[in-house]
From TrEMBL:
Organism: Tunturiibacter psychrotolerans
The gene coding this protein: mpl
Class of this enzyme: ligase
Record lineage: Bacteria, Pseudomonadati, Acidobacteriota, Terriglobia, Terriglobales
PANTHER family to which the protein is assigned, alphabetical: UDP-N-ACETYLMURAMATE--L-ALANINE LIGASE-RELATED (PTHR43445), UDP-N-ACETYLMURAMATE--L-ALANYL-GAMMA-D-GLUTAMYL-MESO-2,6-DIAMINOHEPTANDIOATE LIGASE (PTHR43445:SF5)
Protein name per the record: UDP-N-acetylmuramate:L-alanyl-gamma-D-glutamyl-meso-diaminopimelate ligase
One Pfam family per UniProt: Mur_ligase_M
Length: 477
């Protein structure tokens, strides 16, 4: 593809699409985009880059005619811009396809995949490479992450060096390409964190999810390497026919990369890692949660196998700053700590609440959940959701986001979740939206409370409304 094209992105505020916009701009292209729901952190990223967001979708957004249109995977037939592209034969492609064609030739593709943990693990891996590049500039990484890595203040970087670190998303690619995006990335080395049923809108069942990951494993060349979690039978099944070396990580005594002596000191986690039974390093991470120690070990294992020094790994993990919307403290107002977390699968919700218990062991923990993802809006995980949310002291559920788009027989019934939690002795309530939640919850909050807001979307700007209401209550008091 030639330089200096006008490239328009339909659905530009998706995490990967916004990052791609910045990457294409760095390549010298003129970039424009459109969306209907611009919200932080990606709207802030695009604003900082000076990339305009046209709202709402309209034919006029495609005038003058762009040279190429990138169609986001959330865009379906019937979208006014997509229909105009098809009618007028403007060339178009998917995010994953242009990423492969424009950025990956001649690079070393290092992919992090899995149902959970891939954003954080990719961010850790990128920071490890960044720290290592201080001694060896050839290790300076390019990367694309599905979130803003706080060590970098961005979700992407493009350099001329070989390492290119990619978060490998199992979600489909575009309306015309229903395969996973990660099948476009052809990894030289791969991390596989977890394999569970998710994305119920595109995968029929767990076997279908496993088939997708097996296809990814099958793309790794014989000279490559896979670092795979060993605490999951699903992961084991997915890597059992790999043509390359597979190194397992976890707590099992037989793990190639084994975590031992895990201990939590507030928001700090420490542990020891052995490699094939031999001491590798004592690691620390300024984040809580056993799941984050596992993520860090996976990143360390992949980096070490690619020649990164142990010293750089230890330093990088010890100075890692997490990812936006991953256990992110948004504000502390009136003695109440408000946490923003992207968790939207029962397993991720469970691990997030466990980590918060470790960080705030003697404080009352609220879980405020918006059922928004295509899986969580369905009833497939209704009982698992109860088990996860029961780790909180107080639970508030919002109404199911755009419930009318889910078939009635498949739809989550949040009232059932609330009833089950109350039956377990966990006070829970169902409220319509962010405004109703703020109005009901603020009078009940005590100094020292921790409120975890769990959503993979904007949640009616509850992140701004809740602290404002608490501050108003405090000033009146």
């Amino acid at each position: 593809m030639q330089n200096f094209k006008h490239i328009h992105l339909i659905g530009i505020c998706g995490t990967a699409m916004a990052s791609l916009a910045g990457m294409l701009q760095l390549q010298g292209h003129r970039v424009t985009g459109s969306d209907t729901a611009a919200y932080p952190p990606m709207s802030d990223l695009l604003a900082s880059l000076g990339i305009p967001i046209h709202e709402p979708f309209a034919e006029s957004n495609l005038k003058p005619r762009p040279d190429l249109v990138v169609v986001g995977n959330a865009i379906s037939r019937g979208n006014v811009e997509l229909e105009y592209v098809l009618d007028t034969r403007i060339p178009f492609c998917s995010m994953a396809a242009i990423l492969h064609d424009e950025f990956l030739p001649g690079r070393e593709s290092l992919v992090v995949a899995g149902t959970h943990g891939k954003t954080t693990t990719t961010s850790m891996l990128a920071w490890i490479y960044e720290v290592a590049s201080r001694q060896n500039p050839e290790l300076a990484p390019s990367f694309l992450i599905g979130g803003v890595a706080e060590n970098f203040g961005t979700s992407f970087k493009v350099r001329s060096t070989k390492p290119f670190l990619l978060e490998g998303d199992e979600y489909d690619t575009a309306f015309f390409d229903k395969g996973p995006k990660f099948l476009h990335y052809f990894p030289d080395a791969l991390i596989l964190t977890h394999v569970e049923f998710d994305h119920a809108d595109i995968y029929a069942d767990l076997p279908a999810v496993k088939t997708a990951f097996k296809r990814l494993v099958n793309l790794v060349p014989g000279r490559g390497r896979i670092v795979a979690f060993d605490g999951s039978e699903n992961v084991s099944e997915c890597v059992e026919k790999a043509f390359c070396a597979v190194e397992r990580y976890g707590f099992d005594p037989l793990s190639h990369w084994r975590l031992t002596d895990l201990r939590h000191e507030g928001a700090l986690t420490r542990w020891t890692v052995t490699r094939a039974g031999v001491a590798f390093a004592d690691l620390s991470l300024p984040m809580a949660g056993a799941h984050n120690a596992l993520n860090a070990t996976a990143a360390a294992a992949l980096a070490a196998g690619q020649g990164v020094s142990t010293e750089a790994i230890v330093e990088a993990l010890g100075t890692f700053k997490s990812v936006k919307r991953r256990l992110e403290v948004r504000s502390t107002v009136g003695g109440v700590t408000i946490i923003d977390d992207f968790a939207h699968h029962p397993t991720a919700i469970r691990e997030t609440l466990r980590a918060l218990r470790e960080s705030y062991p003697n404080q009352r923990l609220w879980a405020v959940l918006e059922p928004r993802s295509n899986t969580l809006r369905r009833n497939v995980f209704e009982s698992d959701l109860v088990d996860s949310l029961a780790l909180a002291d107080r639970v508030v559920l919002a109404s199911v986001f755009k419930s009318e788009n889910i078939p009635a027989n498949e739809r989550l019934h949040p009232e059932n979740v609330v009833s089950a939690l109350n039956a377990r002795g966990v006070p829970a309530s169902l409220l319509a939206d962010a405004d109703a939640i703020v109005e009901a919850v603020v009078p009940q909050l005590h100094e020292g409370d921790v409120v975890a807001i769990l959503s993979n979307g904007g949640f009616g700007n509850i992140y701004g409304k809740l602290p404002k209401a608490i501050a108003g209550r405090t000033s009146r008091a």
